[in-house]
């Protein structure tokens, strides 16, 4: 094996990516698959899943999809079980599925709280409970979460969304404490503003989009491909001594 393969190759690995049919999750799934992993995508919409699998297969990668709804505890637990069916127990688990419902704080009701916390925080927890102990037993297993700059600051009615993302970064640290002595890493990627379907409404305002680009140090907003390198790093052997961390992939947004 070459030096770079030794550090970064995911050949022979299986990765589960929730939210792998769109935006950042799709970008990460593509990167892991192109680095050699067999990838299982999890989301609700069959059409976008099939489209992503087709795109990856056309690139010569191995990928399949599982339909699952992470908006309930039972759904998240069932989706984790189902995700292990196509290729067996995964080596890598990426939790990118997320929702941002954005009602003002005073209008957050039980339904918004439950949906946000379940998809954004509880589902990654259950995926960790399902796969973390097995990974620890095998001595390898990156858990990668996708948080948000809103875990660190209030921003455009962060409301319960920011709460869920703050919890997610704490979850990664707790998972690292539990399982890193046994070869598992748990880390969080922290995006800034990324052009994806999640924030399509905000994208209708070109002045706002330009202002957000100006707030970065790089001078542009993010795109899903920006997460490829960091995801391959966190999923592979090169990052074995990196755990419990929140890694900002945001063009410098968070330090400006
Ligand atoms: N875009 C940004 O600027 C930004 C910034 C910071 C953080 N993030 C975070 O990055 C992650 C990805 O966001 P994105 O921008 O890539 O969003 P996106 O393009 O809307 O993708 C979201 C993905 O999650 C899946 N999903 C949503 N609800 C689900 C559910 N109940 N069960 C299963 N899957 C579900 C979606 O598929 P289905 O709808 O078909 O289920 C889709 O695959 C999220 O955690 C988000 O909070 C995004």
From TrEMBL:
Q: Which PROSITE patterns match?
A: ADH_SHORT (PS00061)
Matches recorded under InterPro entries: NAD(P)-bd_dom_sf (IPR036291), Sc_DH/Rdtase_CS (IPR020904), SDR_fam (IPR002347)
Print the keywords alphabetically. Answer: Oxidoreductase
Single annotated GO MF = oxidoreductase activity
Q: Which domain of life is it from?
A: Bacteria
Q: Which Pfam family, just one, is annotated for this protein?
A: adh_short_C2
Which family does the record claim for this protein? Answer: Belongs to the short-chain dehydrogenases/reductases (SDR) family.
Protein name, as recorded: Gluconate 5-dehydrogenase
């Amino acid at each position: 094996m070459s030096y770079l393969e030794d550090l970064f190759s995911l050949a022979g690995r299986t990765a589960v990516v929730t939210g792998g049919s769109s935006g950042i999750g799709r970008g990460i799934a593509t990167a892991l698959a192109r680095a050699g992993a067999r990838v299982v995508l999890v989301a609700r919409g069959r059409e976008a899943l099939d489209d992503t699998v087709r795109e990856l297969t056309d690139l010569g990668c191995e990928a399949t999809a599982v339909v699952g709804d992470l908006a309930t505890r039972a759904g998240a637990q069932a989706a984790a079980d189902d995700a292990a069916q196509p290729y067996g127990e995964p080596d890598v688990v990426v939790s990118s599925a997320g929702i941002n419902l954005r009602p003002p704080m005073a209008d957050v009701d039980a339904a918004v709280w439950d949906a946000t916390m379940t998809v954004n925080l509880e589902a990654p927890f259950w995926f960790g409970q399902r796969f973390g102990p097995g990974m620890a037993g095998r001595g390898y297993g990156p858990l990668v979460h996708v948080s948000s700059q809103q875990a660190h600051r209030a921003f455009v009615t962060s409301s319960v969304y920011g709460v869920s993302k703050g919890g997610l970064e704490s979850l990664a640290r707790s998972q690292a404490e539990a399982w890193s002595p046994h070869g598992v890493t748990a880390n969080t990627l922290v995006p800034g503003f990324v052009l994806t379907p999640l924030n399509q409404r905000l994208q209708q305002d070109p002045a706002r989009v330009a202002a957000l680009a100006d707030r970065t140090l790089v001078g542009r907003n993010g795109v899903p491909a920006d997460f490829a390198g960091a995801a391959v790093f966190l999923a592979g052997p090169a990052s074995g001594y990196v755990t419990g961390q929140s890694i900002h992939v945001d063009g410098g947004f968070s330090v400006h």
